[in-house]
Amino acid sequence: MLKEALDFKAESDGLYALMKDLDDAAFAEPTQFKGWTLNNVLEHLHMWNWAANESHADEDNFVSWLTSAMKSIGQSNMRTYEAQWVDGLSGRALLETWHEFYTAMAERMVDIDPKKRLKWAGPDMSARSSISARLMETWAHGQEVYDHLGVTRANKDHIRAIAVLGTNTFGWTYATRGETPPGPMPYVCLSAPSGEIWEFGEKSDEERVEGNAADFCQVVTQVRNIADTDLRVTGPIATDWMSKAQCFAGAPETPPSPGTRFTRKL
User: Fold this and answer.
1) Among 76, 95, 88, which residue's Cα sits nearest to residue 19?
2) What is the residue-wise DSSP string for 217-260?
3) Whether 165 and 143 share a structural domain
4) 72, part of any domain
5) 95 and 197 inside one domain
6) 123 shares a domain with 35
């Protein structure tokens, strides 16, 4: 069983519950993340959920679609293409379409071989990494929705998959910038929502990142600046990494400036 598929559904269900009582007008309101609206968040999540599912269900069709999509995105931009892809859906209709698809997708993926190799926009990845990436994207883009609606998210231990991605992509943070890591990955010691302790890397007193797992996940997904968390960072390598950590694919992105991403008080 691919447990991460159940975790993906649980995180998606939480986001759906947050938005299910909103009226259509609320979905057009801009968030703190680059002015994305709630419609933009759902367009993005739904299209790439479909793509991840298609890479498993029909690899040839996925590869054909991806080639066409990347060409179209290059001629316009990602937001424009995603809005076109959902074919005019917005508001509650888009919400329900996203909800129905991710529910069925999770049910299909729970029985897939975790080690099955799947095509993607970047390097091929395992099915476990694929669904973990969908969990990460849902959690990360969900943050701007929680922030916009003034709701503090109650995290659960399924964010471990995001912490794993965050540590596994230590080298990627540098590679996407054309840089060489300044040394081995620092020791990471995190307190899970349940109180369990999660440890990654070799123990070190000189290079380490310690604190709340949700804070770490916020930094590696770039939904918070390290200065807006309670993480304790020791050592020059750890400090450099946390200043630009990036666990998602694509071109290098700059983390938000301190104080610019926060849960609104309504």
Assistant:
1) 95
2) HHHHTTSS-GGGS--EEESHHHHHHHTT---SSSS--PPPPTTS
3) no
4) yes
5) no
6) yes
Structure tokens at 21: 């009582």
Of the CA atoms within 13 Å of residue 263, those in its CB half-sphere come to 10
CA angle (168, 146, 11) in 5-degree steps: 50
Close Cβ partners of 203 (under 8 Å, ≥ 6 residues apart) = 187
**pLDDT in tens for each of the 266 residues of the chain?**
899 999 999 999 999 999 999 999 999 999 999 999 999 999 999 999 999 999 999 999 999 999 999 999 988 899 999 999 999 999 999 999 999 999 999 999 999 999 999 999 878 999 999 999 999 999 999 999 999 999 999 999 999 999 999 999 999 999 999 999 999 999 999 999 999 999 999 999 999 999 999 999 999 999 999 999 999 999 999 999 999 999 998 899 999 999 999 999 98
Indicate if the alpha-carbon torsion angle 12, 122, 255, 85 is positive or negative. negative
List the structure tokens of 149.
Answer: 């609606």
Q: Residue 258 falls within a domain, yes or no?
A: no
Judgement on whether residues 17 and 75 belong to the same structural domain of the protein: yes
- The answer to whether residues 23 and 141 belong to one domain is yes
pTM over 0.85: yes
Q: Residue 230 phi/psi, 5° resolution?
A: -105, 20
- DSSP 3-state assignment of 84? helix
